[in-house]
Every structure is written in C-alpha cells, then in structure tokens.
Specification:
The protein has 338 residues and is an all-beta fold. The strands form 2 sheets. It has a 19-stranded mixed sheet that branches. Strand 9 and strand 10 form a beta hairpin.
C-alpha cells in the first residue's frame, strides 16, 4: 500500500489531495479445498477543498473515488439461517466494487455559541447488489449477488446548537434524511426500489438549573419504500412513523445525595397499527462524606411493560421485532473504591 498527499493553503482556503493504492489477496476455501483466489488492486483518491470566506464560516467540498474488494463477510457460502424462517445465500464473486462519493457543506459558529451546520452528500456504487426472494410457506429464502449496474444514495443532514444562557440550557436540533436505491429481482427483470429514511431529534438540555439537571428530548423517524407499479412489489410501499419523547433528569439534593429519573414514551407505527410503550426508571445515590463507599437503589420498568415491539421497513421486507422484558424490579447495590 502506498500514500501520496498534497496540501495547500492560500487566502485561508485549504486544498487537500490524497491518493492511496495497494492490493488485497482474497482466498475462498470450502471443506479444506481452495475454490477461488485472486489478487485485487485497491485504490482511494480524495480531493477536498474548504473555503473560509469569514473566520466563523466554512464551506467544505469533497469528492472521492474508492475501489475496494468485496467484504469477507459477503463472499459465497452455504445458506445462512438469519432467523428461524429466514435463510440467506450469498453469491458474490471475488472482485472490487468501485464507488464515487461527493459532499458539500456549510458551517457557522457565532461568538455567542450558536452553531449551525448543513451537509449534502451523494454516493454512487457502480457495482450493485441484487436481492432475490423466494418464499415457501412462511419460509423466506433470499439470494444476494452483484451486477454491473449503478445504485445511488442521496443524503442531507443538519445540526444546530443554540445556547440559552438565561436558563443555563442548550437547545439542539438534528435532522437527517437519506434516499437509498436498491435492486430487486422480479422474474427476469431488475427493479430499482427507493427507500426514504428520515429522522429528527430536538432536545433541550439544562445543567445545574437550581440543583436540577435534565434533558427533554423528542425523536422521530420516518421510512417509506417507493416501488414501480409494474414491479409486483407494491405491498412493500408501507410507510412507518415512530415517535419517542424522552425525559431524563437528576436532582442534586445535597453534595452526596441525588435522585434521578429516566423516562421514554415510545410510539411505533403510528400510521398503521400504533403501539404505545411507556418506560420509566428511577434511582437514589448516596455517598457518605469522606467514605470509599457509595450506595444506590434503582427501580426499573416502573410501568411494568412486558414486551418491547419495534416496526421497520427495509428495501425488500418489513419487520416486527418483539423483545420480552424483565418486569418491574428494584435493585440495591454498594460500591467501594480502593
């Protein structure tokens, strides 16, 4: 592997060029017998340029070409049992996958601590994965292979931090949205499926507000598939919206005694079959003065929820995950530092 690097700074603007090159030797072996082996060239070429029109403003741009080998985990193997009713067969050859990436951003930091950031990104994978699903009763047999056809990803993200000095608090907003393409097999036809995934997080963080420190947060996520009407996969166009308000707080009643609470109200699949779960934990921590010992009492799952259920939409399937939970319980512990 080798590396060439060039950096230049002019009028506060920064230019960076990097070139990595090398090789990767892959071997596929089954039952102590070599099936395939190949030496593959690898490369990575990056050009980034950052404009600094003002001291508190930055405009970063970057473009990258990447040629990397297929991941070892994706090399051909016998069908893998992913879940009880889900079998996966990989049919990847020993080869490299060329990828092109580009991004552009904007960031601004003010003297009062207000920070804003935006980024747009684009990724094109020139050799793409194709997924074929075959169903027998309630068993899903999936095969993944590679074809010489490009799929793209478009992304947008933004982050904003706004201090509220009068409340000793910080208001934060994070937004992310990605549009991903994937190929599906329908008979002898390749169908391009597009998946939209977006998330939003807004939180207000208080620190040492009259002996209280707490965070109020709301998180939302949205997912949807867009499939051509002629594909026969129209049942995959389900929309999923999840919403989770949270509250985490701590009350410092004394220097060596505090109480805390962590709560979350999960609302899953609001557009179809809404599921609502309310979780709350509480704790008391006491550390005697000039002592190596500390004591904690914690109560978990105060609302005695029994099952945690999560719904998701993927490129070629939907999932409903249910996880059994430990019921309402109380724990007492002691800790010593020595």
């Amino acid at each position: 592997e080798y590396l060439l690097r060039y950096n230049k700074k002019q009028n506060q603007n920064i230019l960076n060029i990097e070139l990595y090159g090398g090789g990767s030797y892959l071997v596929r072996k089954e039952l102590n017998r070599f099936i395939d082996r190949k030496l593959l060239p690898t490369a990575r070429f990056i050009v980034s340029y950052t404009l600094l029109p003002k001291k508190n403003i930055a405009l970063p741009f970057a473009i990258e070409f990447l040629n990397k080998p297929v991941s070892i985990e994706n090399l051909p193997r016998n069908p893998l049992i992913v879940q009880y009713t889900y079998f996966q067969q990989l049919a990847y050859p020993l080869r490299t996958i060329p990828t092109i990436k580009a991004s552009a951003g904007f960031s601004k930091l003010k003297l009062n601590g207000i920070f804003s950031y935006f980024q747009f990104s684009f990724t094109s994978t020139l050799i793409s994965e194709v997924t074929t699903n075959r169903f027998n009763l309630f068993f899903n047999f999936e095969e993944r292979r590679l074809v010489s056809r490009a799929t793209n990803q478009y992304g947008f993200s933004t982050n904003h931090n706004i201090p509220v000095s009068s409340l000793k608090a910080v208001f934060e907003v994070n937004l992310n949205s990605y549009l991903n393409e994937q190929l599906l097999q329908s008979g002898n036809q390749l169908i391009k499926n597009t998946n939209l995934w977006s998330s939003a997080i807004m939180l207000l963080r208080f620190r040492n507000f009259k002996r209280f420190s707490f965070v109020i947060e709301t998180a939302a996520s949205y997912s949807q598939n867009f499939v051509p009407s002629s594909s026969g996969f129209n049942d995959l166009e389900r929309k999923i919206l999840n919403l989770t308000p949270k509250f985490n707080g701590r009350w410092n009643m004394a220097k060596n005694f505090s109480a805390g609470i962590q709560s979350a109200w999960h609302q899953f699949d609001l557009l179809n079959n809404p599921i609502s779960l309310l979780f709350a934990d509480a704790d008391l921590i006491w550390k005697p003065k000039n002592s190596k010992f500390s004591f904690e009492m914690k109560a978990e799952n105060l609302f005695n929820e029994e099952v945690f259920t999560l719904t998701n939409v993927f490129f070629n399937a939907q999932s409903l995950t249910s996880i059994p939970l430990i019921g309402r319980n109380i724990q007492v512990s002691a800790r010593v530092n020595f």
